[in-house]
């Protein structure tokens, strides 16, 4: 009997040592298998004539603390392994979906931001072009208004002649002196006793010394002269209707006598005297 009991303990501990590195479910299966083997062995020994010894051996197995623990685990422990594994798989799938959704969301966000940046750049470029178009249109409109507001009609040739005569006659004068010379040219164009355009007025015989000595075509027109001519064409006028001007110190005596005898003196500015 002692030998049989030792045999059962040896089988029990062997199976237990094998189940250390396996899952609980396999461990329980091994324990049940071991228990079944022990029961079969007891029945076999009992049927073979061991009589009371077999019964005592079966009782000893039933009374064993290890057997009671295994049976208690088998009866009391629920099937947690499969449930735990399934829950873990579901949790892993959920986490994978969440990570995938985050990745997709991040990619979409970046694409949206990139698209918005491209649209913003395109919009800014369009607005810049529109501003340039508007500015060009405004500049053209202002130029048309400036031309329309001129006191006299003026071709490009007239304008260049106008600039050169003012530079030649009043290049060393201040702005007022230059505007006054321009005023006299404009007054002559308007007056019926003189030609009806700037070029003919300037080149009228024996009227302006720069034409007679050729300096009209040698002068270099300054920016200041251009501004003064434009101001005069826009209506800035200090002339009091003067039709003539003279630089007494640089004029011939015959011309000076003619001015004094035939014209009405109006005023003088710097080196010029103005007449009507």
> Can you tell me the number of structural domains?
3
Strand content: under 5%
Mean pLDDT: 78
For the secondary structure, the number of strands is 3
Reading the helices and strands in chain order gives HHHHHHHHHHEHEE
Task: Pick out its properties.
276 residues; mainly alpha; Arc Repressor Mutant, subunit A; 3 domains; 3 strands; rod-shaped
Description:
This protein starts with a helix and ends with a strand. It has a three-stranded antiparallel sheet, sandwiched between helices. It has helices at 2-18, 24-50, 52-63, 65-76, 80-149, 156-170, 175-190, 198-202, 209-213, 223-233, 253-262; strands spanning 244-246, 265-269, 272-275. It is rod-shaped. The chain folds into three domains: 2-80, no CATH class; 94-149; 156-275, Arc Repressor Mutant, subunit A (Orthogonal Bundle). With 276 residues, the protein is mainly α.
The gist of it:
This protein is mainly α and 276 residues long. The chain is 72% helix and 4% strand. It is built from 11 helices and 3 strands.
Which helices and strands, and how do they pair?
Elements: H1 2-18, H2 24-50, H3 52-63, H4 65-76, H5 80-149, H6 156-170, H7 175-190, H8 198-202, H9 209-213, H10 223-233, E1 244-246, H11 253-262, E2 265-269, E3 272-275
Antiparallel strand pairs: 1-3, 2-3
């Amino acid at each position: 009997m002692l030998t049989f009991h030792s045999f059962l303990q040896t089988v029990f501990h062997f199976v237990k040592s094998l189940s250390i590195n396996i899952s609980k479910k396999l461990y329980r299966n091994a324990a049940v298998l071991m228990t079944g083997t022990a029961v079969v062995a007891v029945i076999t020994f009992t049927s073979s004539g061991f009589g009371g010894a077999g019964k005592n051996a079966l009782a000893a197995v039933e009374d064993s603390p290890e057997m009671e623990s295994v049976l208690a685990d088998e009866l009391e422990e629920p099937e947690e392994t499969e449930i735990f594994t399934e829950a873990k798989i579901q949790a892993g799938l959920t986490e994978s979906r969440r990570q995938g959704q985050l990745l997709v969301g991040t990619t979409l966000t970046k694409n949206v931001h990139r698209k918005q940046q491209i649209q913003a750049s395109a919009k800014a470029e369009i607005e810049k072009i529109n501003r340039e178009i508007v500015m060009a249109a405004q500049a053209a409109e202002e130029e048309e208004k400036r031309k329309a507001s001129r006191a006299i009609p003026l071709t490009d040739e007239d304008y260049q002649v106008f600039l050169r005569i003012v530079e030649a006659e009043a290049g060393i004068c201040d702005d007022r002196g230059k505007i006054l010379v321009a005023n006299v040219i404009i007054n002559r164009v308007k007056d019926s006793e003189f030609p009806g355009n700037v070029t003919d007025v300037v080149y009228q015989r024996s009227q302006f010394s720069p034409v007679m000595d050729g300096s009209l075509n040698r002068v270099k027109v300054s920016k200041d002269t251009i501004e003064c001519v434009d101001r005069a064409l826009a209506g800035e006028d200090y002339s009091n209707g003067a039709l003539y001007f003279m630089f007494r110190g640089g004029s011939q005596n015959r011309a000076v006598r003619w001015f004094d005898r035939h014209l009405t003196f109006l005023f003088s500015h710097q080196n010029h005297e103005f007449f009507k």
